[in-house]
Amino acid sequence: MPRRSRPMGSADILWLTMDRPTNLMVIVSVVLLERVPDWDRVLGVIRERIVEPYPVFSQRAVRSRGPLARHRWQDDPAFDLERHVRRATLPAGATDADLQAYIEDHLTQPLDRTRAMWEVHLVDGPADGAALVFRIHHALADGIALTRVLLGLTEDADGRPGDLLGAASAEPAPPLPPPGTRPGAVAAASRLVLTAARVGWRRLRAKGVGATLTDVAGTTLRTGQVVSDLLLTTNPASAVGGEPGRRKRIVWTTPLPLPGLKQAGRLVGATLNDVLLSAVAGALHTYQAERGLHPVDLVTMVPVNVRPLDEPLPRELGNRFALLFLRFPSRDATPLGRLALSKARMDWLKASPEAALTFALISVIGHLPARLERRVVDFFADKAIGVTTNVAGPRELRHLAGVPVTGVLGWVPGSGRHTLGFCIVTYDDAVRIGVMADEGRVTDPEALLAALEDEVALLVRIGAAGDAAPGRRRPRS
User: In a 3-state reduction of DSSP, which class is residue 61?
Assistant: First the structure.
């Protein structure tokens, strides 16, 4: 049978070539299970719902020869599912800390590029449960698409396969001068942003954004502001910044109640996403203050889906998302102040063309020569501490291989000098937040996690008190 081969998209090439020893482009997801599932049934589900529908899971990345050499996806002639799915057993009496250590031990291991770049670990434990640990290279697909793929492994109570139900967004940052940047990188980035602005403007206009003179004027002004932000935003020095190393730490929260967080959001008309981002900002405020530093607003990069969620995923998957700059209100000392700022910045973003511009920018960068591509990627990546993503999963209990899913976790890769990332996943009327931190720069991720859980508990108490205030009209359920 002839090998299938197809060109790799420019965005996929970008993520393929962004691997660094200090920041691998590998997305990590964990599905927690109530008990250990049947091994053969797990293999069958992965084969039928991942490998067969999406050919990229049985293909490897190759580079064609010649003066116009391009990366391609090509069938792996030696593909064997059981080379990609392995089994491990934690010691008797293992806890979440043992699962955490197991995952951390694999974070620094690059995926084998001579075959399809993904792997799954079925881990027996902790306790009587199990965990499916997925490590998938970003070149295969963006995180939101991969979440849909992985949730497609699950079923509801009636046996219907699952899928993603929602997505995320974030906010831009006010511009600051970029001291110490290299003129060459700035000039290259400026040309790329302006090119992306023209492409993004055409896409916005094609969608009817310029229907009226008022819309045209508003969009033009916001486009100028976004271009300025993309070029001039910097991430201030902080307790979590610096040059990353190879070793990473991961931690995650206990399940956090959604109803209480939604109550807090109603106090200022904020969305659940606003509330969760403000909780992360509060944890960053506390972490900085506890180290004797004056808290500052820290910048993160937030992926925003540009793929319609009401349409089936294409068989080729790939990367279709934009990256936005969010300045966490982590300088503000009050929970409601952080929440109000999160909402205000989110509202600005919703009317901003930044998503269209950065989506076009990603496509443009993927066509650059490798050396220039790396400089431009570092120019933008170094403006942030890392990546923060928010994925909405099923609202009801799911099953995988006949076993109830008790939780879903994720960790997103960083690039350049990224040292700290957050992955928010909602599932079954609860939310968990996974934190990936550079061991040398964020020396106490457990303290950051404790601050995050304390901030969530505080917001829930504030929401409950406000909802119970005399004369406050309770919304209908």
Answer: strand
pLDDT digits (tens, 9 = 90+) for 207-239: 454 444 344 344 444 455 556 566 667 778 899
Q: Residue with structure tokens 């057993």?
A: 89
Question: What phi-psi label fits residue 231: left (phi over 0), alpha (psi between -120 and 50 degrees) or beta?
Answer: alpha
The pLDDT tens digits for 247-301 are 999 999 999 989 999 999 999 999 999 999 999 999 999 999 999 999 999 999 8
Eight-class DSSP state of 161:
B
Q: Whose structure tokens read 């039928």?
A: 48
**158 pLDDT higher than 90:** no
Whole-number Å distance between alpha carbons of 168 and 354: 15
Phi, psi of 126 (to 5 degrees): -75, 165
**Coil, strand, or helix at residue 363?**
helix
Q: What is the pTM of this model?
A: 0.84
85 neighbors 116 (Cβ within 8 angstroms): no
CB 372 within 8 A of CB 192: no
Query: Which one, of 340, 343, 344, 335, lies nearest residue 452 by Cα?
Result: 335
86 pairs with which residues across the strands? 121
Per-residue burial over 171-192, b = 16 or more CB atoms within 10 Å of its CB, e = otherwise: bbbeeeebeebeeebeebbeeb
User: In the 8-state DSSP scheme, what is residue 172?
Assistant: -
**Angle between helix 272-290 and 445-467 (nearest 10):** 130
Beta strands 26-33 and 403-411 are: antiparallel
CA-to-CA distance for 275 and 69, rounded, in angstroms? 47
> How far apart are alpha carbons 301 and 291 in whole angstroms?
24
Residue with tokens 């299938």: 4
Amino acid at residue number 289: A
pLDDT (tens digit per residue) in 39-97 = 999 999 999 999 999 999 999 999 876 555 688 999 999 999 999 999 999 999 999 99
Q: What is the pLDDT of residues 345-374, one digit of tens each?
A: 988 877 777 777 777 777 777 777 777 777
Query: Which amino acid is present at 137?
Result: H
Give dist(CA 407, CA 203) in Å, integer: 38
